[in-house]
Fold each of these.
Amino acid sequence: MNTKKIAIAIDGPAGAGKSSISKVVANELGYLYIDTGSMYRGVTWAVLDSQIDVKDQAAVEALLPSLNLTLEPTATACKVYIKGKDVTSLIRQQQINDNVSTIASYKGVRQYLVERQQEMAAVGGVILDGRDIGSVVLPNAELKIYLTASVDARAKRRWLEVQGTSNEQTLDEIKKNVVSRDEMDKNREESPLVCVEDAVVVDSSNMNFDETVAYILNLVQETINHE
């Protein structure tokens, strides 16, 4: 068996199961799942810990080179380190939730994290998911996947997830939200959702979670064998 490790980019619309599937695939392969959301949270924690005003873009961006932000794979996702300190639990605090959107809106922060993601991917053995991974973050990834499913399938999955929770909605409400989110993601100015020409389209409408994971693992092995 070829032991080469590749970079995998997974894009797709909301509700396609990108993150949950990517985490399982990464764990099966012994790859690093790069949780971009946690990276933005890590920067936000560092800004607040340094007592920098989150609205001071210049000061926030000046802090970035000193962060030494790294990720370490775990069975469930990854640990986040800032200057060697494990901040994985600290980045889930409400104070981070309240400020991460502001930090993530800064162009310098986005550029810094994309560069870090590209550095991590350069050694291979990584999976990254999002809306613009194959087009912007990892344009040279050996395997690009566009994971999608019908609006009805994605809405039903989301509906089943929220049953009995405080976020419970009707199936019709969720379906409308999915359609609205798709339009927003595809038409936004900054990093729109796009299926690049060299992506393998995986439609999971008629596959369950385990079947989708198995299908993607097979794609990975085929890609490695052809490298």
Amino acid sequence: MNDVSLPDALATLKFGSVAEQDPDTHRVRVRLPELGQLLTAWLPVLSRKSLKDKDYWLPDIGEQVAVLLDARGEDGVVLGAIYSEQDAVPVKSADKWQRRFSDGAVLEYDRKDSQLTVSGAVKHVLVQTQADITLKTQNTLTGDAGDAVLIKGGNTITLQAGGKVSINAPATEISGTLTVKGAITGQGGMAVSGGGGATVSGSVNVSGDVIASGKSLVGHNHMGAHGPTSPPL
């Protein structure tokens, strides 16, 4: 069995505030008040993963952190930020995970209510991928926008429902050709203008009159040899 000699003093736990940042190496220097405002060497900040998967998040300047230093105080690691009376905890629940950003954006998951919330000052949400994206729920899927909703498809956009698709809007505009493979039912009238007019292949059944260039189909007369004829039967 090999003999292992230990240093006279083991590593110690200290608390201080971040004085400098090095974003390129994910390191910081920490000011330690209990050691006469000693400024540490550049110390790595502990991350959850750094090889295949990578986690990157530096503590801010002035943020209180816990530091593990070696016996001589020359090397160590920043274990992470800590809460205090000045920097109070934002959530008081053992069932919640939350990340709150300085611009007001908040990501929160409540395992008690099984609810994921994205709120606050989030101005843009970008999901950029070459894979398929599926939104699937057994309940209601709601999209609510205060201004505009834009759905762009490079080739085809399909809306599929087992029952009915409803469009509830004061006006609906379709730029391009409209093909309907089922019956069309109109309850508020219909107006067609421009293009080549309207073409119907097949029979047309009209309950009421048909007016063409101001002439009534039901009430029009023709001029015969002995005067106007009677309206069509």
Amino acid sequence: MEKLSASSIVNSGPISIICYCVSSILMTLTNKYVLSGNPNYNLNFLLLCVQSVVCLLLIFFLKNFKVINYREFNSKEAKSWSPIAILLVVMIYTSSKAIQYLSIPIYTIFKNLTIILIAYGEVIWFSGKVTSMALSSFILMVLSSVVAALGDDKRSVSDLSSSASFFGLNYGYYWMFSNCFASATFVLYMRKRIKLTNFKDFDTMFYNNLLSVPILLVSTFILEDWSEENLYLNFPTDQKNSIIFSMIFSGMASVGISYCSAWCVRVTSSTTYSMVGALNKLPIALSGLIFFDASVNFLSVSSIFLGFAAGLVYAVAKQKEKAEDAKQHVLPVSQKQ
């Protein structure tokens, strides 16, 4: 058998797809393990800070070995990018709170609602449009979220059920809705800034993490409890090493997602990447059923497949929209008489 060379691996579509899927699943699972594995864990800002620091160190290491490249630090660019860093912190914090209280399937399904907000935000700010097929996918997304909520018979996946609800609804849902709005605002504003700055993927990643670290550090020291008693509750002796390792590993996985996303687009196509993103929701949701104490019933399983179908329909709708736009930009060739 012919051995795989380094260049053949780097340019392999199937391998890039597998790596992208594995990295996103691993990050979701490790975050869930840290935030819900220990019911007393409450240092969310610390977790996010560790992830950002690990991400920075890893991309610095990769740049030194010429695996990736990004622009050097510029104070003027950093100042103009700082609002995005603040939005990023809001987005990842609300995400961490949502996944702490909600099961992975519920979190994954409700995350689809962000797509709707982004789509209509693009209509308002970027003269985008929503086709009938895209609208159909939005209806499926809302339906899958309603079915998921109805099937969530545990209401809370943590041991804090007595204090984790508000008007009978798990706090995680409030954090989830907040995260959807924060994510949509972050994506739309960042898209606008990228057009102005011409940032590449790793430029964006470098500035996002670099500028978010001081915000996260200040937040964890001011807003979180760093007493000896609370640190012991967050890092009990029997779980301390595994929790720290998971925090570091999730930071490495975040780099993996960014790198594998760019890799997948480069060696396949944007169509394939969109499809993979839609298909990937299914294994992520199912992993929550397998590895964590998530509700398993007809409604919860149905919501996963509805959410999967919604993502797939949306991916197809976007590709059809792109193909139609490409046709409109092709000038007709005049024929000689």
